[in-house]
Amino acid sequence: xxxxxxxxxxxxxxxxxxxxxxxxxxxxxxxxxxxxxxxxxxxxxxxxxxxxxxxxxxxxxxxxxxxxxxxxxxxxxxxxxxxxxxxxxxxxxxxxxxxxxxxxxxxxxxxxxxxxxxxxxxxxxxxxxxxxxxxxxxxxxxxxxxxxxxxxxxxxxxxxxxxxxxxxxxxxxxxxxxxxxxxxxxxxxxxxxxxxxxxxxxxxxxxxxxxxxxxxxxxxxxxxxxxxxxxxxxxxxxxxxxxxxxxxxxxxxxxxxxxxxxxxxxxxxxxxxxxxxxxxxxxxxxxxxxxxxxxxxxxxxxxxxxxxxxxxxxxxxxxxxxxxxxxxxxxxxxxxxxxxxxxxxxxxxxxxxxxxxxxxxxxxxxxxxxxxxxxxxxxxxxxxxxxxxxxxxxxxxxxxxxxxxxxxxxxxxxxxx
Length: 417
Known about the structure:
Elements: E1 4-9, H1 19-33, E2 37-44, E3 57-59, E4 66-70, E5 74-75, E6 80-81, H2 87-98, E7 102-105, H3 115-122, E8 127-131, H4 159-165, H5 171-185, E9 190-193, H6 196-205, E10 212-214, E11 218-219, E12 237-241, H7 250-262, E13 268-272, H8 280-293, E14 297-301, H9 308-313, E15 317-320, H10 330-337, E16 342-345, H11 350-353, E17 360-363, H12 368-380, H13 382-390, E18 396-397, H14 398-408
Parallel strand pairs: 1-2, 1-7, 2-4, 7-8, 8-9, 9-10, 11-18, 12-13, 12-15, 13-14, 15-16, 16-17
Antiparallel strand pairs: 3-4, 5-6
Helix pairs in contact: 1-14, 4-5, 7-8, 7-12
């Protein structure tokens, strides 16, 4: 029987193509293919859309089943939507009109931690499921769980530890933040984590283990479409795919490339992605590194999602050098879908997706020398490259993943693994 599913994210992939938004939208379409009526609701602020007088909603896309909710009045510390007079009545009207059987929430950023409570108050019988994609409820530092001073990885939050990162915020405020978020998130029926690592972090934070299921992310069918392999003659080619920012390890990768070039190693590195909303200092640093490593390092710029399979298929190895606890980067799955090995940092969900010496190589985060050494192995050992590529782990397709979610929603039988 067809059910109504409201898929909610903190943006829309057409405006901000981050991994969470992309995955949420892919899943939304998969629910529709499975025969359910789905509506996609993306929250935005003034970065991407200006407010329109008289309504909180704006249209996006030609099909009428995707809408934006302007949520510009947002308290980032308490993860709270403070525009109660405009936001809540409009959201309540949408819920009453669409009458979802399930609300699948992918983030509380912009939407606010009050969102599940609004759903429960408006539609008491509606099932609320939240996929956890990062650590925003746990960590005020943009959900990174990285210390603000020396970019040291953080292994757990506490009021005193968080105060050490933000000296202007007293410990009791952090204690209040934690109580506030846990109370509001308690309204959610069940949680999903795409990695065991992320699940453990939330269990340690205080969410009961039996409330969190682990369901791996999936990819759309086009991610598995392979074009003709590039010629294997010539120098090995590496690829980076994603936004350029400090936490993705952009500078670490460029510094590793500079070391290899200084040692006279022949290779090519194609860096795909833009650097939106980054500081002038970071932009200046990477501009300098790109200049120092050209032409072996090529800055290819932003790319379309539909082109990523061909772009990955055109390189020998993908590099994911993130220095924070990445949960389950889609780019690793996209590389594996193309039979490409991955060099990744050995932390977080990355360490679950890439097994050192099996389907890729893992290195310590924020260590250009170790990253350069791993890249050098790929360059100098063609047999190793072929072995790692041959053991690539095919990820789930998005329809299989949707089937697992629908089983969690109790809307259909679980598909075979």
